[in-house]
Amino acid sequence: MMHRLDISNLRLEYGFRRILWDVSLHCETGKVVGLLGRNGSGKTCLMKAVYGELKLQEQYVGIDGRVLLTRERSPEDMRYLPQHHFIPPGLPVKRVFNDFGVDFDRFAVDFPEFGKTYQRRIQTFSSGERRIIEVYVVLASVSTFCILDEPFSFLMPLHVQKIKEIICREKVTKGIMITDHYFEDVIDISDELFILQGGKTWRVQERADLELLEYIKDTDGIQNRRTDAE
Questions:
Q1: CA dist 69 to 36, 53, 74, 168, 222, Å?
Q2: What is the pTM of this model?
Q3: Taking all residues of the chain, what is their mean pLDDT, rounded to a whole number?
Q4: Taking 80 as the threshold, does the pLDDT of residue 24 lie above it?
């Protein structure tokens, strides 16, 4: 059964500064929705609002037409991966996987280097290792939607590729929203792509749209101009 997360009329202002202004987008199960934007554009604010951690001046967030009020989120509806480490460092890995209802043995198949870490405490891992655990338990838990804020932070390329594979695997039964400054990886796995700029979301149809919205430079155009000058 397909489920749909609808987000519309999101508005957030600090003083005279508009962070979000009439933002609208949606996410369906079976799809990955990528969100790009410059530093300070409001991507994290948007995701916190969707999850219910941030109350806005105006907002609509609903699943299948059911309105989700501020902070009214169940793990079965939605899981959220924040930018920062969120698992208490003193917890053992066993407790983390049990709390999220995630199979550690399957995790060890995906990441064999963690095979003997079941009893270790989170504080004994590096930042990259902690991030792998955090991303995995959010993605692999039973939930209709997952919101991922900077899931590739601290990860080396081999692990980024593995996480991308897991995202594609998990989207079969989930809707996934993702933002990350590793924009090429976001583009690679996204079924739909938006960019947040000037407080609004813009649908990205092709790479040229990112150039028009000045998110990336028109490197081909620069090269052509150099060639013409020569």
A1: 26, 11, 11, 29, 48
A2: 0.90
A3: 90
A4: yes
